[in-house]
Amino acid sequence: MTSNNTLIIINSNTDISLNLDNCKNYVYSINNGTLVNDNAISLNSYKKFHKIAFNIRNKYIEFVGNFNQYFKNNYNFHGKNLFYFTDVSTKRTEYLKNYDYICHILMIKNILKEKDINNIIYYNTPDEFINIINSFSNVKKIILKKYFNKNFYWNKIIIRQLIYLFKLLFIKFISSFFFKKKIHIIKNYFFSTYPKNFQFSNHIKYGDFIKNESCYILSFLTDNVHQKINLISFFKIIQKIKKDFNNKYIISDCFINYSDIFFFIKINFKCLNFFQKKFISQKIENIDFSQLIRCDIKNSYERVTRLSVISLSYQRLAKQIKHNSNFYYYLFEYPYGRMLSLSFTKKNINRIGFQHGPSGYLKMICFLSKEDNKYLYSNNLTPNLIMVEDKISFEIYQLGLFKNLSIMKEIYRLNYLNKINRTNLINNTHLIACGLHDGLMILRILIKSIKANKNINYILKLHPKASNSKILELVRDSKLENLKIADNQIEYYLERIDKVYFSYTSVGNEAAFLGINNEIVYSDFKLNESVFCKEENFI
Predict the structure, then answer these.
(1) Per-residue CA distances from 372 to 32, 66, 274, 297, 302 (Å)
(2) What percent of the chain lies above the pLDDT cut of 90?
């Protein structure tokens, strides 16, 4: 007797309902939402999902690294391979979806074998995802909802680039008017984006590592991803710097030239066509996943063009530093940090990189391919010395083929924890800590538990830099009397709560540092980047 089994693959931020027949239906979700029909069986499994991720991790690292070949004989980044300044080259798993998608597709491949599937229904699933499944399966497909209009996607990018061009011109003009091109003859220079990652008394990255004999290199104009400044508040920021910094600063934006405006226009024309071309084919487990990488390379277009023009100002600044000095900076794992490494490559400048945030065994930005390692270190795209936070981070970065590692004497960004006084504990008070990208996912997973444990008071700490509208909407619709939105700083709650729920945010590490009971929240559709997520957990 022939089976009539249907697999429904869903890409949705919300739960959906579909009219299904009485045949056996399975559902597999690659996003927050799922299918709420009674006759649909979910096949998601975070254990199988993460086991696949660990099994193919090294293959994935080399798979991505091999795409550098396509860039070698094409447009370069100030004489260096353009590939290493793309997001895809750094494997930003907190931002890019291709590693998650590859693991999902391998999960689906196993499902098709095990469940004797006859039909696949795709709901809002990316075309590339569908095409890859079709490459190894002849199962009949039905597309209920298209993903998005790709032409409109490129139109939006062009509009954003025009806006950035205006910002470039504006910040150049204003910076030149309010600040001078000056270089302090000093031993230590500390890079920081301002105001996003800056605190006057205790820098969010460097803590009290910064001594009196130091100078900040501040940047307003970044790649418009690491920081966005409202032009209205721009003048307030300028006045605050001039008032509070006592002249211990250098504004990198002062080193932008008006000719850079034309350079930015030029590289946009050069790169626009190149980033829309087809790329070489590469396989994992005999499946060609290149389409996913092509998408992420396209998404890097804005970043590399902006970094290319920003780099000019940093190169001019670095040339003015004639004496022996140290340049401290974070983001060395990212395209922005690689741009800084290149810009400050001089014999008299010692480049010292600070680990950016917690490490993790599935946090792919901590891992280099063999080709990455060879190219980055031979072309000065890494720090001369990398300061990691602890022994576990040392182990992870070393496993990821990073070199010249040194463990910090103390975790400077966590110095504030020494002031935490845990004598005011409130029993049955649990904190739900949201990261930059995982807040909605965590809340959806925990809702059932929150409803079932009415004797526990839950506090939801939203990430200050995240887009939280959908989370707030879910809180409002759920009407949970024992769930409140946090209205104090994280320090306040770390002094009082007796448990923390988290996915990958550093709050989990901070809770562990203080001896607070913590529970990692695993997702069925998003790989966990926390240092607590280890391969042995899924054997």
Answers:
(1) 33, 9, 22, 16, 22
(2) 45
